[in-house]
Amino acid sequence: MDPKLRPVIAGFIPLLDCAVPVIAAEMGFAEEEGVALKLVRETSWANIRDRISVGHFDVAHMLAPMPIAATLNLTSLAVPMKAPMLLGLGGNAITVSMDLWQQMTDSGADLKGDPVTTGKALASIIFSRHSDGNPPLRFGVVHPFSGHAYELRYWLAAAGVDPDTHVEISVLAPQVMADALQAKQIDGYCVGEPWNTAAVSAGTGRIVTYKQAIWPDSPEKVLGVTHTWAERNPETLAALLRAFSAAAEWCASPENAEQLAGILSRPDLLSCPMEICMPAITGQMRFDIGEPELSQPDFLSFSGGSKAAPMPAHGRWFFEQMVRWGQASASEEAFSQAEAVFSPQIYRSALGLEDSWLEPAIKLFDA
Amino acid sequence: MNGGLSILVIDDNKIRASIIEEGLQDAGHDKVIVVHQMDGLVRQIADINPDVIVIDLENPNRDQLEHMFQVSRAVHRPIAMFVDSADSQSIEAAVDAGVSAYVVDGLRRERVKPILDMAISRFRAFSKLASDLEEARTELADRKTVDRAKGILMKSKGLSEQEAYDLLRRTAMNQSRKIIDVAQSLVIASGLLGD
């Protein structure tokens, strides 16, 4: 290692949206900014939380709501955190078993993933099971404080389903979702790619709707960093953000899609067939093994520009979901803390973005 | 002095699990149950009704487990991660060693801390064991590589075994490299040149 480089240790979970840190380390973007970036693959979000808390990791690839939950002391080993950059937008989908999909099409579900009709179709099945005295449908998500949990819950609730009583939601590791679906341990799940495509290409699952349709251009993973580390290492953090911005631009460029899929599928990263990484990266999604690809360029997107800046409104939305689903109690102070976690300031000043910025209007599919 | 706490150890590494089990039993805990897989774990936890759960950090199901502790109706008593805010060092030591512990609500820290400390020391002992083993393996592999390099030199230059080894050692010294590195280069080069 070049002694002039500043070392940064980053934890990540093997998912498509770990692309930005991986590419920053692999393609020299970190080194160009004077950062020796060392990546450590982890096996659970709990490990990411624990190891950033005790200082094993300087920064980490995190579920967007995690830094808020840590800051508001809603989890174990909670420490005040910041989410200075969005590492990926979109990229999740909701997949159900072929059996359940058959029933949903009979109830009028849209083939292209429209959340309104698919939600209605699923709701009618859930209610008739309920009145027939059948056991509730079971869904998997990757973590209670995750975009996945909130998207699934929002979508169900918009169709009149109470996610706490009409269905059962449990937590499973992303890479086991497709197997659990096939083994009929669950009826559906919400997870990031490539773990929806894994079930689609095995012919055991069908994508019914997706994050980009539920909440367009919404944050999925963020760079997480403790308050303390950010304050002690402002220059290193700024250099890292510039490196990540360049890496994200590389990831966003269509001509790099194949190379990116090749890198991510490696045994030391996602360790999966390269073919299942391609659909979300190229924006050519297949929702059902028997149907043609759909062009969805923004299914999963990376940005190194102002789109990757966190926004207080994002933090606010995530905190609203925590309150809505009983994970946190509302207070003005908590709201402003959640907003502060998603402040764009660090990112914008690292990149020298000086244009004025506006809070995005948070608009979900049913708005 | 064990106070009758029941301890569940979740670890799919059977050797490590038995090292921990043994340590806890030696310390006087007679209610130690070890499980290696997650299948049916909710039911098992409900049946065993443990006071303390020890799990390795490599387990990919920690998120599932933590969620289950919070929401499952099958689990009788609330279970939370053992976080002793008065002693952040012991948390750090646990994460360093690769272990985490969950305890039922209301247990006093004095009763839990010795269990966590025992798990930490046994995890450390295990990783020392694992790294010693790894070292021994590398050493063995290195010796094989050096033997192959000697064989190549003996064949191509008509040297005795001792002469071949001396040549490797001299070359390494002259180039300020390790013998194993010189041997490795030679084996690779010889492979490329088709022996």
Characterization of this structure:
The complex is a heterodimer of chains A (about 375) and B (about 200). Chain A is an alpha/beta fold and about 375 residues long. Chain A has 17 helices and 13 strands. In chain A, the strands form three sheets. Chain A has a six-stranded mixed sheet with strand order 2-1-3-10-4-13, with helices on both faces. In chain A, strands 7-6-8-5-9 form a five-stranded mixed sheet. A two-stranded antiparallel sheet of chain A has the order 11-12. Chain A starts with 5 loop residues before the first strand and ends in a 16-residue tail after the last helix. Chain B has about 200 residues and is α/β, with parallel strands linked by helices. Chain B folds into two domains: about 5-130, D-Maltodextrin-Binding Protein, domain 2 (3-Layer(aba) Sandwich); about 135-190, Winged helix-like DNA-binding domain superfamily/Winged helix DNA-binding domain (Arc Repressor Mutant, subunit A, Orthogonal Bundle), CATH 1.10.10. Chain B has a five-stranded mixed sheet with strand order 2-1-3-5-4, with helices on both faces. In chain B, helix 5 packs across helix 7 (about 180-190). The longest helix of chain B is centred in the last third of the chain and has 49 residues, at about 110-155. The mean pLDDT of chain B is about 85.
